[in-house]
Amino acid sequence: MMEKTVKPFGQQVSRSWLIHLTSHGMIEYKVSMKVLVFLFTSVAIVRAATTYSIDINDADNVLTAPGWTGLNAVHSGNGGSVDVGGVVFGIASSDGARLRGSTASPNPDALVGDFAFDDGGNEAIILLFGAAGDLAAGTWQVEVWSYDSSFITLGDQILGLRTNGSENADATIDGMLQGNGIVTNNMASSSSGPAASFTFLSDGASSYDIFLRENNANNRTRLNAVRLTQIPEPSSALLLGLGATGWIFRRRRS
Fold first, then answer.
1. Residue 29 above 50 pLDDT?
2. Considering the entire predicted model, what is its pTM?
3. What's the pLDDT band for 152 if we cut at 50, 70, 90?
4. Mean pLDDT over each residue of the chain, to the nearest integer
5. Which residue in 103, 169, 241, 250 has the fewest CB atoms around it within 10 Å?
6. Is 62 in the same domain as 144?
């Protein structure tokens, strides 16, 4: 059996873990600040965040940004999908896809140089987040990239979330329950980072998708990429850790 150093009750010690023998023969444990910090940081998260990074490509000129999963959208017409760990992300309601520049020299880069598009009044592009029940219950962050180097001033676009195929269904957007899934009516394009970001609450049973609809005189909509990240819930283990820490630092008052 492994032996542990026993110190007289009340004696100050500097080791990370030591056993204390109280005046009544009870055993107490004492931890250093380093161990306490480790305890808090190690139990703060139950699991690593689930992230889906979808880069929309032109199926006729495929170019996927490093670290992303490519979804090859139909060049002329609607369609295109990719299965990521059993969740099928699919393009719907688009006119096609394009790559600005070339696969060797995209304009401006591999992430926002290609896109799915829909031109025309009141037209929209939809990206499906799998089928009903595919997204685990909890809060998800959505980041949306929208840019076209040939039309730098695309104009405003409407960004929204659909629940079970309806943009008029109740949705919790950025922590607020609202009667529809409209995120913004004024999303502008951006070549250097997401054009928009928001969170929504999944019930773990419904189907979800986002849509971009033109809201400008040019009647143009572009969708380059979407990153979907589940926000981890605080760990119940943290509460257990707090209780254990309280026990560890229990000290009998003399």
1. no
2. 0.78
3. confident
4. 84
5. 250
6. yes
What is the full DSSP assignment across the chain? -----EE-TT----SSEEEEE-TTS-EEEEE-HHHHHHHHHHSSBSSPPPEEEEEEEETTB----TTSEEEEE-SBSS--EEEETTEEEEEES--EEEESB-SSSBSS-TTTSEEEEEESTT-EEEEEE-STT-SPSEEEEEEEE---TT-S----EEEEEEETTBTTS-EEETTEEESS-EEEEEEPP-SSS-SEEEEEEE-SSS-EEEEEEE-STT-EEEE-EEEEEEPPPBPHHHHHHHHHHHHHT-----
Q: What is the mean pLDDT of residues 187-202?
A: 97
In residues, how long is the chain?
254
- Check whether residue 120 and residue 75 sit in a common domain: yes
Q: What single-letter amino acid sits at 125?
A: I
In-domain check, residue 99: yes
